[in-house]
Design goal:
Helix content is 71%, strand content 0%. The protein is rod-shaped. The chain has five helices and no strands. The termini are far apart.
Amino acid sequence: MPPLAEYHGPDTQGPVTQDPLLSRYEALLALTEQMLSLAADHAWDELIAVEGDYVSQVAALDSAALDSAALDGAALDGAAPMASLDADERQRLGSLLEAILVNDLALREKLVHRRDELGELLKVSRNQQDLHRAYAGGRVVSAGTRFRRETP
């Protein structure tokens, strides 16, 4: 499998394909790498914005595959867009897909870790609220005066 750097656009070294299908997958790979970098930097708001771009590009890719299959009269199994690729391009597409999936898995692991961190923060916050309520702003509430039976 060629190094991932070979799959980037015109601003990097390495082969860049002219095939629109491979170009779209190269763009998806670049987005997954950007998303991983943002997650590593804990740039969660920026990550959400890039994730929106990623979802849009995946939807556009799905739409293009459906349109191409319909135009070719092929079954909608995704084979039509790949029919135009030669063996090297198919291998490259496989490598791109593998790299995208590896990045996706790594990103999911980071997001699960972040979810767990946020869960712990919420737990701590709830405990602090409970303590605050129990001690009524720092004062100990005497239960004896509230629950003491008055004797006749």
